[in-house]
Design a protein that fits this description.
By secondary structure, the protein is an alpha+beta fold. It contains 6 helices and 8 strands; from the N terminus they run H-E-E-H-H-H-E-E-E-H-E-H-E-E. The protein is elongated and about 80 Å long. Residues 110-144 form the Guanylate cyclase domain.
């Protein structure tokens, strides 16, 4: 039976334009009970034969077993990219960041300062915490904690306020926990 491609999903038209003559889809049930779809196309002029479809059905469970680890890896990478960003996700996926390892980089922490920070997995084997720490991170946290007390939603240190493009005004010097001298803070 010929399809009227104008009434079907765009994917069918794209496959046909690429030379596909037949399309077959089946569900693959994974060991954890999740179900993934799998689709196959052919360029054979007669499409899939009954023997082809029977072979797909007979090998469906083996194909599901082979595809499950791939689907799990892709899901893991999406999750890592969502919560950690592209760079750290790749590093963790490639096995470069393990429990207790960290990496130092130079960074600008919004509202605080410029300087070296360290990021990595911190914690015990039972509970890992992927985090960033260092003097600029501490300063950012403490400066932002003051924002409610001085009734300004965003505060900055002089390291950021001195940027010629920043339109800030000083709100005076304030004591910052863990810093010996008062720090001048700025607002937008």
């Amino acid at each position: 039976m010929a399809l009227d491609l104008s009434r079907e999903h765009d994917a069918y038209a794209e496959l046909a334009a690429d030379g596909a003559t037949d399309f077959f889809a089946m569900a693959l049930e994974h060991g954890d009970g999740s179900v993934q779809g799998s689709s196959l196309t052919t360029h054979h002029p007669d499409g899939f034969s009954d023997a082809d479809i029977q072979a797909f059905e007979v090998t469906r469970h083996a194909l599901a077993a082979a595809m499950e680890p791939i689907a799990m890896r892709e899901s893991q990478q999406r999750l890592l990219r969502t919560y950690l960003g592209d760079g750290p996700a790749v590093e963790i996926g490639d096995g470069h960041i393990k429990s207790g390892e960290n990496t130092s980089v130079s960074a600008a922490i919004l509202s605080a300062d410029f300087g070296p920070v360290t990021f990595g997995n911190i914690g015990s084997p039972d509970r890992l915490d992927y985090t960033v720490f260092g003097p600029p991170v501490n300063m950012a946290s403490r400066v932002q904690a003051l924002s409610k007390g001085v009734n300004h939603p965003a505060l900055f240190t002089s390291a950021l306020a001195q940027n010629p493009q920043a339109n800030t005004s000083s709100i005076g010097h304030h004591d910052i926990r863990g810093v010996a001298d008062p720090v001048e803070l700025f607002r937008l």
